[in-house]
Write a structure and sequence with these properties.
It contains 13 helices and 14 strands. It has about 400 residues and is an alpha/beta fold. Strand 9 (about 240), helix 7 (about 245-255) and strand 10 (about 260) form a beta-alpha-beta unit.
Length: about 400
């Protein structure tokens, strides 16, 4: 049960450590975390792949620490490692640039700073090995700090400086801003072969917690017991939130005057995807024979019979459009850089991704002129209930 109480990766501040080979990135990571998280060696290029660790780091709280390969790596393998480092930037909330204090800022470091600025990532420059310098060799700057991973000099101040760069999540809520204390919320949760044994999926857990924090009342039921639940409640629910897979069935059971939405739609709004998902869903009506649809999931899991991404969504899109469509599914970090082969991207709600990575993926589609939508929005659209499913968000231009 302990794992179920941990802060999910998508809700943690992602802190990436970047720099040249042998600048001391791994040593700084170990000093900041107080753990032997990364392998340390005098050999250049010891870190060959990004290393991630979820942990609690005071004074920040729950974080993901990412140690990256040297950005000046060479050769064909080096190019692949540099590419992986650039991919890490897409989910980095705070960047730490580690510079060898004896060598100073290099062209490689300047290139990294340009990437931080281009991607709007708050960063701090850390001059490591300050124990090897005389005081006169230190050049102070507001966005830099001198530390020594060897002696511990400046490490506590560095942690405080990193914490000060943490993006604010004030006012960011999953559903609490749309409900009031005492409201009655019904959550419809199918239990089928795809449901994780003994637990609820993350969006369902987070929604229940947000409802409880608001002082509202949550009632959880399966779609097969929804009618009985409505009959026994004795009062009209203020909102029904359903798993998108049973959108059609729940809509047919629920009276028209009861607001309805889905966990996937709530998560898409929470991650900053919903506006683009609503705009992009109209592209379904323009799909043609031979078009390829990319179905992207942020997590990796064992696909089963009736899997929503690889089976149900292709089935619904094919039935709705009547077109001979091609489908490609990707999961985890396998999001393609080149989206030109695709007529549409259908993305999951992004519960396992942080907001920065979801934003990056959304911008990639916009930059390449490819429409993007998400599971919940697409499913509501093909079932003819998009307007109803978005009714609690009057700020959207539907």
């Amino acid at each position: 049960m302990a794992g179920m109480n941990q802060t999910p990766s998508g809700e943690r501040t992602h802190i990436g450590f970047f720099g040249r080979r042998n600048a001391g990135k791994s040593s700084i990571v170990n000093a900041v975390t107080g753990q032997d998280l990364a392998v340390v060696s005098d050999v250049r290029g010891t870190t060959t792949d990004p290393v991630s660790k979820a942990m609690e780091l005071l004074p920040l709280g729950p974080v993901v620490i990412i140690d990256t390969p040297g950005f000046d790596d060479e050769g064909s393998l080096g190019e692949l490692r540099v590419r992986k480092t650039k991919q890490i930037l897409n989910k980095t909330d705070i960047a730490v640039l580690v510079v060898d204090a004896e060598e100073g800022i290099s062209d490689c470091d300047i290139d990294l700073i340009a990437l931080f600025v281009d991607k709007n990532i708050p960063y701090i420059t850390v001059f490591n090995k300050s124990d090897l310098l005389h005081d006169g060799g230190k050049m102070g700057a507001s966005d830099s700090i001198y530390v020594s991973a060897l002696t511990g000099e400046g490490i506590n101040e560095l942690k405080n400086r990193i914490a000060a760069l943490k993006p604010s999540d004030e006012g960011k809520r999953l559903i609490a801003d749309k409900i009031s204390p005492g409201d009655l919320i019904i959550l419809v949760v199918p239990i089928d072969k795809a449901a994780p044994k003994g637990r609820l999926i993350l969006p369902q857990q987070q929604t229940i917690r947000d409802i409880l924090d608001t002082g509202a009342i949550s009632v959880v039921t399966r779609e097969t017991e929804l009618e009985e639940t409505l009959a026994k409640l004795g009062r009209r629910p203020d909102l029904v939130i359903t798993d998108s897979q049973v959108f059609g069935k729940v809509d047919s059971i629920l009276p028209d005057d009861i607001p309805l939405t889905s966990f996937s739609i709530l998560m898409a709004r929470y991650k900053g995807l919903l506006d683009e998902a609503v705009k992009g869903v109209a592209a379904i009506d323009n799909l043609k024979d031979g078009d390829t649809v990319l179905i992207a999931e942020g997590c990796t899991h064992h696909r089963q019979c009736g899997d929503i991404g690889s089976v149900k969504i292709p089935k619904w899109l094919t039935e709705y459009t009547g077109k001979d469509l091609e489908f490609r599914t990707v999961s985890g970090t396998e999001y393609p850089e080149d989206l030109s082969p695709y007529a549409l991207v259908v993305h999951c709600g992004g519960c396992m991704l942080n907001e920065r990575e979801v934003t990056y993926r959304t911008r990639c589609t916009a930059d390449q002129g490819v429409p993007i939508t998400n599971y919940g929005t697409m499913i509501a659209f093909v079932h003819g209930i998009l307007k109803r499913s978005l009714g609690i968000f009057p700020e959207l231009n539907i």
